[in-house]
Amino acid sequence: MFYRPADGHGLRHNPFHAVVSPRPIAWISTRGLDGVDNLAPYSFFNAMASEPPQVVFGSSETKPDRDGTKDSLGNIRDTGVFCINIVEFAAREAMNASSAPHPREVDEFGAAGIAKASCETIPCVRVAGAPAALECRLTRIVRLAGDANYAVFGVVTGVHLRDDCLVDGRLDVTRYHPLSRLGYRDYAVVQEVFQMARPRAIPTR
């Protein structure tokens, strides 16, 4: 089939999320100016550069108590910092619980029973025991087409790696099995990896 998004797809569920998959999940922790900690998962997320390390995530929903956005983006606008916690398979239920649409005064760490740890370079908390966490400072927020769609860019100022996930100087994802988002209500987990060497350039005469 072929469809133009502006005309609709005619299916029971939007296939776009299933097409662009699997997507890594950014479990984003922030702290409001009122001191309330917030934690929520975002699957429109990826790394954008490595020197210096930079990330981006997309926010595309609203809350009635957040003036056209969500708690994570509202807090980031106010404070300029956020932490991206990597979700392992063992934390899938806690991650899902933290996605509940609580009022802004609710701390999702407490509501979902998730332990906190302090960040080192930013005034924020992170998920204690996460296999990896990226402390970030906001660089820009870009308004996208559509209602309440934003791209949030940040530069990584600190990286936490869980010691048991480091093997021979490398982060071994099979030690924690990262969770990823597919379409609809579907998720996937990385359990096996394989390697491929990049081809060498063909010499020119």
TrEMBL record:
Gene3D superfamilies: Electron Transport, Fmn-binding Protein, Chain A. InterPro entries: Flavin_Rdtase-like_dom, Split_barrel_FMN-bd. This is Flavin reductase family protein. It comes from Rubellimicrobium rubrum. The lineage of its organism: Bacteria, Pseudomonadati, Pseudomonadota, Alphaproteobacteria, Rhodobacterales. It comes from the Bacteria. Pfam families: Flavin_Reduct (PF01613). One of its GO terms (molecular function) is FMN binding. Residues 20-178 form the Flavin reductase like domain.
